[in-house]
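Wait, mind explaining this?

_____
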Amino acid sequence: MSLQTHLSQLTRKHEALEREIQEAIHRPSASDLHIAELKRRKLHLKDEINRLQQEADTVH
């Protein structure tokens, strides 16, 4: 899998988590713990995307 393909997949996952977070925030039955876990996963993906982009920038 190429780096660009991997970055695209991570970006799609990041966007999907953002949608899931927004849906959970507007759902009265969603727990704060669940929302916090989603946000943690989203932040982890963002960190991974940034790390890979920096690696790609140093290669080029």
Remarks:
- The chain is about 85% helix and 0% strand.
- The chain has a mean pLDDT of 94.
- The radius of gyration is 14 Å.
